[in-house]
Amino acid sequence: MRYLTDRKRAVGKGASGTGTEHHWYMTVSAWALVFLVPCFIFIFGSALGKSQAEVIATFSHPFPAIITALTFFVGLRHFAKGAQTMIEDYWQGMTRKIAVLFVQGLSYFLIACVLYALGRMVLIGLAMGA
């Protein structure tokens, strides 16, 4: 039988048991966004004000499409985790559960919309180039 003290059981865990994981996820995703957001702004800025065909041609290339997808995926997951933390800190009961489900659902819905739009642009770009 192993003997664990209260301190040994608590090391590496926050009050919820996942505090360390959450902290590292937020730190890593924040650093990823530090590099992704400027790249996305440059790509988006270069396409801003152009015709629909030129925008589709820009985002149908692999690099802009991948940067855009990663920026929105990482950014929206970062948003969802941060919003969940705030909700868990300040709300209680059924309202907390509904709010967390809403934020998670909103995050995944917006990710799906962005990926769908990128997929459509890539397919239209391929059809225009063919």
TrEMBL record:
It is a multi-pass membrane protein. The chain crosses the membrane at residues 30-49, 55-77, 98-118. InterPro entries: SQR/QFR_C/D, Succ_DH_anchor, SuccDH_FuR_B_TM-su. It comes from the Bacteria. It is found in: Membrane. Keywords: Electron transport, Heme, Iron, Membrane, Metal-binding, Transmembrane, Transmembrane helix, Transport, Tricarboxylic acid cycle. Its cofactor is heme. Pathway: Carbohydrate metabolism; tricarboxylic acid cycle. Part of an enzyme complex containing four subunits: a flavoprotein, an iron-sulfur protein, plus two membrane-anchoring proteins, SdhC and SdhD. Membrane-anchoring subunit of succinate dehydrogenase (SDH). This is Succinate dehydrogenase hydrophobic membrane anchor subunit. It comes from Thioclava kandeliae.
